[in-house]
Amino acid sequence: MKSATIAIIGRPSAGKSTLLNTLTGYKVSITAAVPQTTRNKIRGIVTEQRGQLVFIDTPGWHDSHRKFNLRMMDLISAALGETDMVLYVSDTLRPAGAEELAVAERLKRFSGPIVAALNKTDVQPNGLEAAARFVHEHLPQAEIVPVSALGGAGIGQLKTQLFALAPEGEALYPGDYYTDQAPEFRAAEIIREQAIAACREEIPHVLYVEIADMENSGTGTDESEKPPPGGKKPRLWIRAFIMVESESQKGILVGAGGLRIKSIRVAAQKELGKIFPYRIQLDLRVKARPRGRREDGLLNKLIR
Ligand SMILES: Nc1nc2c(ncn2[C@@H]2O[C@H](COP(=O)(O)OP(=O)(O)OP(=O)(O)O)[C@@H](O)[C@H]2O)c(=O)[nH]1
Ligand SMILES: [Mg+2]
Asked: Which ligand 1 atom minimizes the distance to the CA of 123?
């Protein structure tokens, strides 16, 4: 039996979280067109006859001295310190720049096996050659696999390569686990994803979601709980707040006549219904957080 922990590392928006979702077959980690979507170490688990791969999704590697970014870099370093292997994701649609070099420099100090997934091959195959050359030059020890995280091309080959390089060992999680995240955290992430999708530019980076209450009419929030045969799914009430920095941001998220928050609520409710075996009833509001509590306390909320 093979068993490995694998940190997924790469630039912002390279497609790390999309790749994790495609590898596991579940929506484990939220994704967005804007960078800096992932803010935590999110685990996704793949169990097969061959063994078990435990992936750790990480925030995008971003060179900056802002406290927010430094904190995310710490998360990446922590993931690299606790992992057997690295799955390095590069974006073949963007030429390698300073950030890509910084990632490669950091990975040079990693002693385990590295697999480089050259992503987004569905769009423009001519970026592939330059991306492969970059990896050959800067991470010569890495095995290269071209993939499309979105379309699924190359995913089977990527898994084969990862299993081949994984050490022998016992599974870390039961075979039916695909993530280790608590239901409240998953719910907050799904709502954050829908809020990000509904607004542009500045707001995505400052908002976070607080779950005030989660209560069900069944026996628990256990995801494995199945509806009774032929019966209706039990109901799950979720009361949540989208937290922003200012009244003007609140205004943008609420939208004219409350239309934007309504569409975020409807979209989030639908997505939540896909990951939890419940009929979801979501009560969603936007709150501007009080001034004067913006520094470390806030960082702890943004990056948990
Ligand atoms: N065309 C195409 N788009 C992709 C592919 N993989 C990811 N994307 C898109 O790239 C954008 C970023 O994807 P994410 O998975 O959120 O990227 P990430 O690396 O996790 O980003 P951060 O968490 O912000 O670092 C989204 O709009 C995805 O739909 C792919 O294989 N092909
Ligand atoms: Mg991500």
From this structure: 1
CB 299 within 8 A of CB 68: yes
Can you say whether the dihedral through the CA atoms of 212, 40, 189, 65 is positive or negative?
Answer: positive
Q: Which domains does the chain have, with CATH numbers?
A: 2-165 (3.40.50.300), 183-302 (3.30.300.20)
Decide: pTM greater than 0.90: yes
DSSP letter for 257, please.
Answer: G
Tens-digit pLDDT profile for residues 84-108: 999 999 999 999 988 899 999 999 9
Q: What are phi and psi of 230, to 5 degrees?
A: 75, -10
Closest atom of ligand 1 relative to the 61 alpha carbon: 25
**Would you say the C-alpha torsion 256, 253, 10, 43 has a positive or negative sign?**
negative
Report which bound ligand comes closest to the CA of 158: 1
Measured from the CB, is residue 139 less than 6 Å from ligand 1?
A: no
> Hey, what are 80's tokens?
């690299």
Tokens of 142: 């890495």
Comparison of pLDDT for 13 and 125, the residue scoring more: 13
Mean pLDDT over 13-41 rounds to: 95
